[in-house]
Design brief:
Elements: E1 2-7, E2 12-17, H1 22-31, E3 35-36, E4 38-42, H2 48-59, E5 63-68, E6 71-75, E7 83-84, H3 97-106, E8 108-112, H4 126-134, E9 138-142, E10 145-149, E11 158-160, H5 166-176, E12 182-186, H6 192-203, E13 207-209, E14 215-219, E15 224-225, E16 228-230, H7 235-248, E17 250-255, H8 259-271, E18 275-278, E19 282-287, E20 295-297, H9 309-316, E21 322-326, H10 337-342, E22 346-350, E23 353-357, E24 366-368, H11 372-384, E25 388-392, H12 395-398, H13 404-409, E26 414-419, H14 423-431
Parallel strand pairs: 2-17, 3-15, 4-16, 7-8, 11-12, 20-21, 24-25
Antiparallel strand pairs: 1-25, 1-26, 4-6, 5-6, 8-10, 9-10, 12-14, 13-14, 17-19, 18-19, 21-23, 22-23
Helix pairs in contact: 1-2, 1-6, 3-5, 4-5, 5-6, 7-8, 7-9, 7-11, 9-11
Bound molecules: uridine-diphosphate-2(N-acetylglucosaminyl) butyric acid.
Uridine-diphosphate-2(N-acetylglucosaminyl) butyric acid binds next to helix 1, helix 4, helix 5 and helix 11.
């Protein structure tokens, strides 16, 4: 086990390069299951969610070859069974993409129920299931397994999503790639990684149009064949470092981004008094003036991303006046608030709303990362705070941020990853 130890209060200065998008990678890796032959995927982030997914594919018989640190050749031609019910599946949310991918390829899928970050209530998959049924599958969810079968093959369908779900949009797109005829999905999610998955599939021979709008149309094709594809940069990783420098002050060049994807975050930080200069694939983010209060509501893209909610809330703790946050995607996502209170923040949560009274400073404390973005928020809080912050539960952070400690150290942060001795091992040493 490891923890992060941060001595706060240093402004960040320098350049940070953004890695490939986690939420694109975790969908495109299972999508390789649909491809006949090897596909080369570039700009893959080195994060533990990716490692777990690659291990799942390997256990199913896929060949995975590392070309360099961020490039893999994945060949799933040898996978013979539509079954993925390993324990590891329950640790990662994105394992649900194997349902759509296996159903699309084999006409059947037996997959363990997905795990992943938990935001209070259960994370449902009813919209995924509704889509698979419309395409002609029978779906049963029991004993921790999702079993989907299309005995007579999959056929095109008209599907209206009740909520613009990222996961359901991608999963139905995967299942429909080979479905006979045309599938039309309405009220789909429009996140940049949805467009990335569609672009990947099209590069391999699929016929998908409309990704990035409200309606996606998929004309079934007979086969996808190998090719190469580079993932988009991670919008949320970039947003996290933008929020960090907004909190600490200083100035960061954030490289390898698509500025258009950042608009929803940039607008809010500018409203807070942060200066942002956009280049073609980078931006200069500086904060010299005091931070102003704002109101934020999280919404599906192009709205302000829920995956940036804990990070912006942390920065707002240091803004003048009263800010409000309204969580518009998940039932609740405020478990991190108790940790910020330990550091001297003044936040009241009422259902989906958080009211944040700005304070003069945060003070270092021992805190826990309860999920991936909550963990990122703890890092930002630690960087801004006076004194030392120790963060436990950093495995969550490493699921989604490549080289976070190294990237932050390179721009002046005093952050260290420290091994926590295992108490049982200590006991053995004492006895020995
Ligand atoms: N929902 C349903 N039924 C469904 C699916 C979703 O009611 O069948 C609801 C959810 O309960 C939620 C809303 O729809 O209230 C949105 O859920 P969505 O399906 O869009 O979320 P997801 O696909 O499970 C992905 C990201 C999350 C991110 C959300 C929203 C991945 C692997 N995960 O989750 O990312 O918060 O979209 O943008 O892509 C993260 O990266 O930290 C993270 C949690």
């Amino acid at each position: 086990m490891t923890k992060y130890v941060i001595k706060g209060g240093r402004p960040l200065r320098g350049t940070i390069e953004i890695s490939g998008a986690k939420n694109a990678a975790v969908a495109i890796i299972p999508a390789a299951m649909l491809v006949d032959g090897a596909c080369r995927i570039e700009n893959i982030p080195q994060i533990s969610d990716v490692t777990m997914l690659l291990n799942i594919l390997k256990r199913m018989g896929a060949r995975v070859r590392t070309v360099d640190r961020h490039t893999m050749d994945i060949d799933c031609s040898n996978v013979k069974r539509a079954r993925a019910d390993f324990d590891i599946m329950t640790k990662i949310r994105a394992s649900y993409y194997l349902i759509g991918a296996l159903l699309g390829r084999f006409g059947e899928a037996v997959v363990a129920m997905p795990g992943g970050c938990n935001f209070g209530s259960v994370r449902p998959i009813d919209q995924h299931v509704k889509g698979f049924i419309a395409l002609g599958a029978e779906v049963e969810v029991k004993n921790g397994l999702v079993v989907a079968r299309a005995e007579n093959g999959l056929h095109g369908a008209e599907i209206y999503l009740d909520v613009a779900s990222v996961g359901a949009t991608i999963n139905i797109m995967l299942a429909a790639c080979f479905a006979e005829g045309v599938t039309r999905i309405e009220n789909v999610a429009r996140e940049p990684h949805i467009v990335d998955v569609a672009n990947f599939l099209n590069a391999m021979g699929a016929d998908i149009r409309g990704a990035g709008t409200n309606v996606i149309k998929i004309r079934g094709v007979k086969r996808l064949s190998g090719g190469s594809y580079a993932l988009i940069p991670d919008q949320i990783e970039a947003g996290t470092y933008m929020a960090a420098v907004a909190g600490t002050g200083g100035s960061l060049v954030i490289k390898n981004i698509i500025p258009k994807h950042m608009d929803c975050i940039t607008g809010k930080l500018e409203e807070m008094g942060v200066s942002i200069e956009e280049g073609e694939d980078q931006m200069l983010v500086s904060r010299v003036k005091p931070l102003r209060r704002i109101n934020v509501k999280t919404l599906p893209y192009p709205g302000f991303p829920t995956d940036m909610q804990p990070q912006i809330a942390t920065v707002l703790c240091l803004a003048h006046g009263t800010s409000t946050i309204t969580e518009g995607v998940w039932d609740t996502r405020y478990k991190y608030v108790n940790e910020l209170l330990k550091m001297g923040a003044n936040i009241t949560v009422d259902g989906r709303k958080a009211i944040i009274e700005g304070v003069d400073h945060l003070t270092g404390a021992n805190v826990t990362a309860w999920d991936l973005r909550a963990g990122a928020a703890m890092v930002i809080a630690g960087l801004c705070a006076q004194g030392v912050t120790e963060i436990e539960g950093v495995d969550y952070i490493e699921r989604g941020y490549e080289d976070l400690v190294e990237k932050l150290r390179a721009v002046g942060a005093d952050i260290e990853s420290v091994d926590i001795p295992d108490p049982e091992e200590q006991e053995i040493i004492k006895i020995g």
